[in-house]
Task: structure prediction
Amino acid sequence: MAETRRYGFESFDCAPALRLEAQEQVARMQTEALNARLDRLEALIERLERRLWLTVFGVVGVILGQAAQSIMERLP
Result:
């Protein structure tokens, strides 16, 4: 906490200032926890997206394989 000095007065911490400081610290901790959760969710979504693309490419590969097999069977 920044300390300002005024002539003839001693600096002191009062209850409202301490309560405000505690609330700011709690808000900062909550924000950090929320950011950590968002980072984990983002990583989870990226893994899910990779799995989805692998599935899409797998299905397309099977379809193309069946089409190629069908063409090969009809050739003399």
